[in-house]
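Sorry to interrupt, but I need a hand with the structure work. Can you supply me with one protein entry, sequence and fold together? No commentary is needed, just the two lines. Leave the record below and I will have a look.
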Amino acid sequence: MALLLSACAAVPDLGPKPLVRAPDSIEAQQSLQAASAVWPSEGWWKAYGDPQLDALIEEGLKASPDVAAAAARFRQASAVAQQAGAPLLPSVDLDAKGGVTKSSYNMGMPKEFVPKGWLGTGQVALNFGFDLDLWGKNRAALAAATSDAQAADIDARQARLALATGVADAYADLAKLHDEREIQARALEIRTASQKLVADRRANGLETRGSERQADATVASARAQLAAADQAIAIRQHQIAALIGVQSLGYSTAFNNSTGAIAGGSGSFLDTLFKKDSLFGNAGPAISLPIFHGGAISGQYRGARAAYDEAVASYDKTVLGAYQQVADAVTGRRSLDQRLADARAALTASEEAYSIARQRYEGGLNTYLDVLNVEDQLLAARQSVAELEASGFTLDIALIRALGGGFAVSGATPKELPHG
């Protein structure tokens, strides 16, 4: 029998279990070298001191359908975990029932042995149950349900993080679009002033018709670019708006009333129901051990192991992706300051060059084409500075997203977070 049981219930040999990647196996020391900084906390966006950004994110966290759906899934998973833990505790149920029956006198039995009249029955049972869970089935179910609840909690936090960083990203992009619009507005002013200057010089015979029409074209182009900037701002504002929808023990009795009524009334019935002679009960252990199910148990084990292997691989992929995101953000932030300083220096030089070129043009020492080239360089320098200034905030948001935005598992210690 022992050999038979071992042959039927043997665990398939699927090789060693994969382990999650250890932190020291990831060479991140070089790419993640940076000055010490405070880990993002809950409400990280408040550190920017922008009341408008605070209001947008807090409104989104209250009204977003995605956040509401994730929170509802967490509540549902918590309820399932509560149900899964119930079998580990005793259960008590109270059942009560009653009724009357009348037997036929013509069922082949002598009539004198058949109870006369209506036979009343009643039962009150108190059911007490407790599963010893010798094989750990209920404990495993509770652990799985608890893990699902924790995963749903993480999903809810992830939804909040995705919303907050999404709003912050869109807000940063909106700020950049406003800066770009300001640049386009100033470009229109410069082009318009140059157009007037060229027209005046042509009226005095100092400029050609071709230069005048070229100046007209630059003004029209600047107007179109300003209109495109207004459209981009409106679309980004719409995006931000969309981000912000077992039995044991009991009593039993029977009563007889030949006249069709309950004999002695309800008092007599209750007295009889709770007498010592009406006591009944049953108790005993029950053990279930799967022995042979045609490969079903082995198949379930293989499926569970495959799911475990997949989960480990997915976890490692997520960890490596997070490291990459952090490394990208840190590397980008490290080089941004120097790039921004260089861009600002280039802007200062371009402004001086434009002033000189315009003075030389007014004095007849430069052509309009020379002025136009310097204007283009000036506008490109302003655009570069605006983009780099906006990139600083965008890189901050990317780093906060990669670090989890202050995320921490409730009640977890650092030792329980291998990559924390």
Observations:
- Strands lie at 91-101, 118-129, 249-257, 279-281.
- Residues 137-203 form the longest helix (67 residues).
